[in-house]
Specification:
The complex is a heterodimer of chains A (about 110) and B (about 280). Chain A has about 110 residues and is mostly beta strands. Chain A contains no helices and seven strands. Chain A has a four-stranded antiparallel sheet with strand order 4-3-6-7, with no helix packed on it. A three-stranded antiparallel sheet of chain A has the order 1-2-5, with no helix packed on it. Chain B has one domain: Cytochrome Bc1 Complex, Chain D, domain 2 (Orthogonal Bundle), CATH 1.10.760. Chain B is built from twelve helices and eleven strands. The chains are: A mainly beta (about 110), B mainly alpha (about 280). Chain A: Pfam families: SoxZ (PF08770).
Chain lengths: ~110, ~280
């Protein structure tokens, strides 16, 4: 597992029904592209977050495939309509199989 | 016909630079809803140069860069702040202490950034925040000193700085500090390098103008440590000083040197009254 991986999410704690809210997410991660070499000339193995998803009460909101060109500490900002009180669940999938999760509840 | 076309083009070319002038804008900086003082009547150290307003470097940056600083979630420097917050509670050194052992929470550091560099009576020296952090580590914790401009140090500075966000910079320049302040002032006006540029050449006589494709600010340091997008990392005041002097094609002083400590005090005093906005975001 990559070091210092820590997900962060910002979601408003309440909203009115049907309101479009802004969600911001950030995960600290080195996002090693697999294209760089170390001082001895050996390729540094690729280690990135390759997928990010967000679900609301079990329904998928966004599902992102991520590629090696994405820089360190990937940040996503997107909007979502909130029909009811519920929980946003955020999941990041690492190349090494690790899965990082966070969740936020919102009251309508 | 051809003549009119050419003159019309000439008008366009002449007027274009006006729209992109590099001066300070009139936007208002608020961080997480708290309004900062990013323009203030010049404090004495700046007023004596004939400049009437101290302007934060934030006003000289592009809208996108400015926006990143207005929400601490969007500010990449806050990652370093979080990391330092963990270190704050980590016991290190032979005395079995962490920062929290003596100082409790990082909130206790409120106001500290605003008054540094500060004269330390016991040690009989002018101390920057970095020097004070290292003094704490070596004298009180029995831990190893951080590298002056290393990542750990800069992150810890950022954590301490953020506690003072919004408070006015207020460094003392009288008493024992006066000698350092004078020395700093002398360095500020000394022309260095093959290009023979002093700090004042750019940041006093030409702020608001372009230097190649970049806007010259007043060189205020109320936003340090600063997250620089081009470095994708935090830089300290002394890193910036070193970069500036290097750009004049001179041999520079090193970070943490007596010259830079004096210069930091002098430059800080030119921004007394501006809000501490560090860690800021710059291009």
């Amino acid at each position: 597992m990559a070091d210092n991986v820590k997900p962060r999410v910002k979601v408003p704690s309440s909203a009115s029904a049907g309101e479009e809210i802004v969600i911001k997410t950030l995960i600290s991660h080195p996002m090693e592209s697999g294209q760089r070499k170390d001082s001895d000339g050996n390729v540094i193995p690729r280690s990135i977050i390759n997928r990010f998803t967000c679900d609301f009460n079990g329904e998928n909101v966004i599902d992102v495939t991520m590629e090696p060109a994405i820089s360190t500490n990937p940040y996503f900002e997107f909007t979502a309509k909130v029909p009811e009180t519920g929980e946003f669940k955020f999941t990041w999938y690492d190349d090494d199989g690790s899965v990082y999760e966070d969740s936020k509840t919102i009251t309508v | 016909m051809k003549f009119t076309m050419t003159s019309a083009l000439a008008v366009l070319i002449v007027s274009a630079p006006m729209a992109f002038a590099g001066g300070a804008d009139d936007d208002v900086l608020s961080i997480d809803g708290v309004e900062m003082t990013s323009k203030v009547a010049a404090p004495p150290a700046l007023a004596e140069t004939g400049i009437d307003t101290a302007i934060s470097g934030w006003h000289f940056r592009e809208d996108d860069t400015q926006a990143m600083q207005t929400d601490s979630f969007d500010n990449p420097a806050m990652l370093a702040v979080e990391r330092a917050a963990d270190v704050w509670n980590t016991v290190e050194g032979t005395e079995g202490k962490s920062c929290a052992t003596c100082h409790e929470g990082p909130e206790s550091m409120q106001g500290v950034r605003a008054v540094y560099p500060k004269w330390n009576e016991t040690a009989g020296e002018m101390r920057t925040l970095a020097m004070q952090i290292n003094a704490c580590r070596t004298e009180n914790m029995g831990a190893e000193a951080y590298k002056y401009d290393g990542g750990d140090m800069t992150a810890m500075e950022a954590l301490i700085t953020v506690q003072s966000q919004g408070m006015p910079v207020n460094v003392a320049t009288d008493g024992p500090a006066a000698e350092y302040w004078e020395k700093g002032k002398e360095i500020y006006y000394t022309r260095y390098g093959q290009l023979e540029l002093s700090c004042a050449s750019c940041h006093e006589q030409n702020y608001g103008n372009y230097i190649r494709a970049d806007h010259l600010s007043q060189g205020q340091i109320n936003g340090f440590p600063t997250y620089r997008l081009k470095n994708a990392g935090l830089v300290q005041t002394h890193n910036r000083f070193r970069g500036c002097i290097r750009d004049t094609r001179a041999e520079t002083f090193s970070t943490g040197s007596p010259e830079f400590i004096a210069l930091e005090l002098y430059v800080a005093s030119r921004g007394n009254g501006l809000s501490v906005e560090g860690p800021s975001v710059r291009q």
